[in-house]
Amino acid sequence: MIKKIVSAFFTILVIFTCSLPAFAYEPNSFTVSAEAGILVSLDTGEVLYEKNIDQKMYPASLTKIMTVLTILESERYDPTAKIAMRADVDKYITGTGSAVSNLKVGEEITQLDLVYYVLMSSAGDCAYLAALHYGDTVEGFMQMMNDKAKSLGLTGTHYGNPVGLHDEETYTTVRDVRILTEYALKNETFVTVSSSSRYTVEPTNMSGKRVLSTTNFLQDTTTDYYYSYAKGVKTGFTNQAGRCLVSTASYNGYNYLCILMKCPNDGGKREEFVESKELYRWAFNTFEFKQVADTENPVAEVKVELNWDIDHIPIYIKDGFVTILPKDADTSTIKIVPNIKLEETSVDAPVKKGDKICEADIIYAEKVIGTVDLVAGSTVEKSTFLGVNFDELWRYVKGFLGSSAMITVYCIIGAVIIIFIGMVIYLNMGRTKKRKVKYIPYSDEKGNRNHEK
Known about the structure:
Radius of gyration: 39 Å
Strand order of the largest sheet: 14-16-17-12-11-15
Shape: elongated
Structural class: alpha+beta
């Protein structure tokens, strides 16, 4: 009885926590003018701010994130090997308005230098040079880029050129840019290049030493937009795409990724840098790590079968759960909701402590902020008697007797019985008719009728 009361208490507790007040992660001290954007914790994956993340957008030079990733993952990539500027690059880039490297035809640079030119300086001619070198043709390279997008699950993305020049066939979403960037940040070379504010290209066969500068003013100390905690990743601009920026920032153990697309381009203040800084400051000042679920207290109980002495066991969260929440968040209002109905669920013994029972969503402000595994809190052995498990045997018998095969047998037996009864009735009716023979009197030789007396 006590176990049933405890189980009911935990069930009521889970249901009660479903009525939490909502909390919206919206900055109230500034406005984000970008048409689409996101701010996400790189530590926990928690989204602190989002706007139109699935809306179709033009990426401009954010395209070069994929361009560089395709270079770095190519079997032909060799950072120290030389690559020469080609004459046929000119026909792709002339008149587009794209930034260029000013490399001369035949001028050789290392392939690592090429990556810096494309990602850090956003040189369009070098992007086409990479396409022709690593893909044999521009079309071949675009196929490589689109194949990679597909493999990463970028369902709202397609590339029509390696630069990001405006093209109806070049589009993406903030959600996809996030997935792509987080993947790219796993590549050490990509991180190093995108985080650099300056890079020196050593003298070539046709030019002297050059110093490349980043287009991301957040990490350029010579600009008014410098933000000491920011690094990379890529800028972008076309008239149709507006001002775009993908960046990261780290402070005091917290790491964030910010993506803003189609910020206004009024010729004055660079909103993509200003608003990214505002979002980072808001995150650093407003949020903190909080442990919202521990492994010491049971979440609920689950019914156990095949044990004569124990009918319920407690279940616990397997690993503690830490996430990013507002500093003033009341963690006592966080709910842990199993993804199954525990009151309708049972597990069969034997059960070992730590065995996974199910999963549960961690919910705060009516939003799922994570998923955890729930595990058995104790070990329960299967009950046996003289080596025979009668509970399991009876369950097997019940299952067998109720199986479809047995139901068919029952039907056949029933039909045979009905036929048998019918035949018995029919035969009995025949015998009754034979017994009902009419008596006809007979006459003797003198013609007198004789009657039995």
